[in-house]
Amino acid sequence: MPGEPLGVIEEFIPDSGAYTKDGIIYSKIIGCALIDFKNKRVSVFPIGHVAKVPKVGSIIIGQVSAVQPQMATVRIFKIGKKALSGFFSGLLHVSDAQSRFVESMFNICKPSDIIRAEIISEKNRIYHLSTKGKNLGVVYAFCSNCGYLLEQRYRDLQCPRCGKIEKRKIAIDYGKGMI
Amino acid sequence: MSQKTETLIDKNGLRIDGRRPDELRPIKVEVGVLSNADGSAYIEQGKNKILAAVYGPKELHPKHLALPDRMVLRCRYHMAPFSVQERKSPAPSRREIELSKVVREALEPAIFMEYYPRTAIDVFIEVLQADGGTRCASITVASLALADAGIPMRDLVAACSAGKVDDTIVLDLMDTEDKVGSADLPVAYMPNLGVVTLLQMDGILTLEEFEKAVNLAIDGCKRIYAMQKEALRAKYVSIKESEE
What we know:
The structure holds two protein chains of two kinds.
Chain A: E1 5-8, E2 13-14, E3 18-21, E4 24-27, E5 31-36, E6 41-46, E7 59-67, E8 71-79, E9 82-93, E10 114-121, E11 127-130, E12 137-140, E13 151-153, E14 156-158, E15 165-166
Parallel strand pairs in A: 2-6, 9-11
Antiparallel strand pairs in A: 1-4, 3-4, 5-6, 7-8, 7-10, 8-9, 10-11, 10-12, 13-14, 14-15
Chain B: E1 27-31, E2 39-45, E3 48-59, E4 72-79, H1 94-107, E5 119-129, H2 134-148, E6 158-165, E7 168-171, H3 175-180, E8 183-190, E9 195-199, E10 202-203, H4 207-243
Parallel strand pairs in B: 4-5
Antiparallel strand pairs in B: 1-2, 2-3, 3-5, 6-7, 6-8, 8-9, 8-10
Helix pairs in contact in B: 1-2, 2-4
């Protein structure tokens, strides 16, 4: 329970989920208190809902909301496995899109695509994303011609309805992964 | 009002609903009642029925409102049109806007605001049925909803009112006592830290009466805190068991 005393600082070092005030260690979330007698640490392991914001290194899922030649903006709606009630916005720059040189962002993603990306910077709460890596990139894409869900044809994507072939930076599990 | 002539405390020292002066109304608390919100709670305190939902932390729009060093807590206290005897307009009234601010400021000291800078947390408090002391019950239930949403908090906030009715200091005023009685004193309190986060008063109390009322209200807060803890435990023990 938040605010429940767990001990004093002479006994333990407060770890995650705990804080100190006037020498007493309190819990700050709902969870199980874990006391490590060996390292003299006390932490609270959360049960149930955990408040989450994007952190450097976390894998996110988002929808591309706008694409410019150098940059794409992404609405982040999922962090790790947890769906957010609101959304955070992130930026994907061409230089972070693929390990090799890419000329234009339009060959990486298009508006309304669902992408999986990693957070590489959170300075001033501006989330910079990267899709370098096999498991990162577009997981679902829609035809820019007719809006139908694209299917993978070798390294490109093809629309099963109008036959248009499009280029994306696709993740290894394109079309198969659960969002 | 016609009730002015009635006595609020009978010759046995009992109040109009049969409570002793230092007795709370029967309270029923439940946590995690809404599936779409990040955190939620529901309280029934006598005839009060209040629902609270918490969303966040999330990105704040418009972005110029975001604070660079801490998050923004947004509260919306709202009374349903059917919550009082005469239909209340659903538009936010002056009183509701003020109470939103009061509730927000009572909750802010309990939350680690600096953990999620440039973000916002929304707290929606919906009064389904009102019978006096809704601001206190709102604070009680909103702090539970915040804890349910997993937001790091210094302590839970419990709130309770005390007041003066027929020259007696009583705990947890109901609507008629609030209107006819001579003073009302809502207190919000963090029981583990011993910090008062809200103290308001309307009416007139002498210094001794004031001190007595504050102590009585804090005592009520402690009793409400025990119920808050029990409600949280009831939900999270069942979650823990289902995980195992």
